[in-house]
Every structure is written in structure tokens, then in C-alpha cells.
Write a structure and sequence with these properties.
Largest sheet: none
Helix content: over 70%
Oligomer: single chain
Distance between the termini: 14 Å
Order of helices and strands: HH
Strand content: under 5%
Shape: elongated
Length: 70
């Protein structure tokens, strides 16, 4: 495997990891509200928004890498 291939694979793996992290966060926040604990509604909205932003960013990065370096 060349340096370029390693670098592209690293970027894909990083994006996939971020995607899974975001999906897990959303699952915890949406499906397991007991895990939220004593957070305020503002914290919940912030956490939901952050998880969605991470998910969108990760999917965009994967799409871009696939488009240009598949």
C-alpha cells in the first residue's frame, strides 16, 4: 500500500469512527433518556445538535473521499 493509499484509508477510518460516535450519541440521547441524567433541556438540545453536526460532517467527508479517491 502506498503512502497516499494509507493516508486516504486513515481519513476514511476517521470519518467512519466519527460517524459511529455520532450515531451512538444520538441513540443514547433519543432512545435511552435515563442516560441523560440531570442535564437541562438546553444541554439536551446542544448535545443533540452537536451529535447531528458530527454525523453530517462525517458523512460529507466519506462522500467526498469516495468521490475523489475511490
Amino acid at each position: 500500500m502506498t503512502y497516499k493509499e494509507h493516508a486516504i484509508q486513515y481519513l476514511k477510518d476517521l470519518a467512519k469512527s466519527d460517524k459511529e460516535k455520532a450515531l451512538l450519541s444520538l441513540s443514547l440521547l433519543l432512545d435511552h433518556p435515563a442516560g441523560i441524567g440531570d442535564h437541562s433541556t438546553g444541554d439536551l438540545y446542544k448535545n443533540l445538535s452537536e451529535a447531528l453536526d458530527i454525523l453530517v460532517d462525517a458523512e460529507d467527508r466519506l462522500d467526498t473521499l469516495t468521490k475523489y479517491y475511490n
